[in-house]
Amino acid sequence: MKVHDEVPAAADLYWRVERATRATVIVDADGYFTALRSAMLKAERRILLVGWDFDARINFAHGGQDGGPPTVGAFISWLVKQKPGLHVHILRWDTGALKTLFHGRTLLTILRWIRDPQIHLKLDGHHPFAGSHHQKVVVIDDAVAFCGGIDMTEDRWDTREHVDDEPRRVEPSGRPYGPWHDATTALEGPVAIALGDMCRARWHAAGGRALEPVGGGGGDCWPDGLSADFTNVPVGISRTLPRMPDREPIYEIEALYVALIKRARRWIYAESQYFASRFIAEAIAQRLHEPDGPEIVMINPATANGWLEPIAMDSARARLIAALRECDTYGRFRMYHPVTGGGEPIYVHAKVTVIDDEILRVGSSNFNNRSLRLDSECDVTIDATNSDHPEAERMVIAGIRNSLLAEHLHSDCAIVQAKLAETGSLIATISALQTSARSLREYELPALAPVERWLADTKLLDPEGPDEMFETFSRRESLLSRLRHHHPVRGRGGRR
């Protein structure tokens, strides 16, 4: 039996599968902020804002005028004054809040909100030591939800053009920041109610009072001008919730990733902020050994943001990529990073996976151990084979992947589609459309210092769940322990 025939049951991959009357993928925060603001203006009863980070100072209106203030904090205060029956609940990671809590304007906004009976702010500390609340979900009147990877915080806004020296790409302080690529989804219908249930449970676990569903699914809160990619399509919701004293762990996303890699027949296209998970690397290695396995294309940033992340994530990525290249007997694995026309790296924060032309996954989780075992995460998946119109959905999913490639290659969807039809290969298509200007660059292995290799192999900064946090290094399974035992297998599937 080939690896991709061994697919777990849907119950192991999804918490719930619910219908979306409309669903669409929104790429980059310019489109997201516009759509979210439009939907929030239609809210009547409740807005749930659940996120890793939230900065009240950011510009929330780069486009048209709707009568409200441009910054998100002032907009929320203004919005509830317009609608006496509306309540806004904001839940964000407690540790991350320390970074922005003492910005002057943020503190003043929080003080105003504390006095406002319609605005409810809570910091989420219901996570293990060194873990984080990483879900990024907004639910409006249980009618429309947004679920993906975009935080409502600084340094996120950008357009799909990723223009060099974009004057609007500035922090609240006025300091410019670099180009940023991201993605989320807009979802309408029963799936929004389900995501509302998840957010309400999260709010309660964080110490908030129990919230009842809005009831009736709310009114029409779909953003003005936002086209739907899908109509009446089932959507699977997957989570990571780490072990806690009052809760058994939930690893649906880990199971989903492995199942999707096993299932792929032709292509795996993935965008992720990190690549540091041995579980995912092992699943990829198994497929690379198959003579007829899928091509695997991964889009990552050139390097992780911050001062600690490059040490933790970039070192682990280098070790895993080196091992996978040794497994890549048939030349089917590539990792790239996008750059602007001026050669500036575009930071990839999107968390998107497309399998063949059949499956689309968008969410908050990355290809790292934290996302699979330690942090709270939420992803949504559309599987064309389970829809009422599979061929139509396949075309849409293929179009979304081609649109992402066109964005990165500074090309056109039709050109990408034609070249892919001609070559039958994602790798060959990228190679044919690469330019010396704005394009994709192939990942180059860095030289790692001994301490960087040790940090990567011990997973000190990216542990496989809360239990490993307190294990001695001698008891931890090495990052590469199982990959070292992989050998090319000709004519059949992988190890298992």
Protein described:
- By secondary structure, this protein is an alpha+beta fold.
- It has two domains: about 5-10 and about 235-485, Endonuclease, Chain A; about 15-235, Endonuclease, Chain A (2-Layer Sandwich).
- It has 15 helices and 18 strands.
- It has helices at about 10-15, 30-40, 70-80, 95-100, 105-115, 190-205, 250-265, 280-290, 310-325, 370-375, 390-410, 415-425, 425-435, 450-460, 465-470; strands at about 15-25, 45-50, 85-95, 120-125, 135-140, 145-150, 180, 185-190, 230-240, 250, 265-270, 295-300, 335-340, 345-350, 350-355, 360-365, 375-385, 440.
- The chain has a 16-stranded mixed beta sheet that branches. It has a two-stranded parallel ribbon with strand order 7-14.
- A hairpin with an 8-residue loop joins strand 9 and strand 10 (about 250).
- Helix 7 runs parallel beside helix 8 (about 280-290), helix 8 packs parallel to helix 9 and helix 9 (about 310-325) packs across helix 14.
- The protein is globular and about 65 Å long.
- The protein starts with 9 loop residues before the first helix and ends in a 27-residue tail after the last helix.
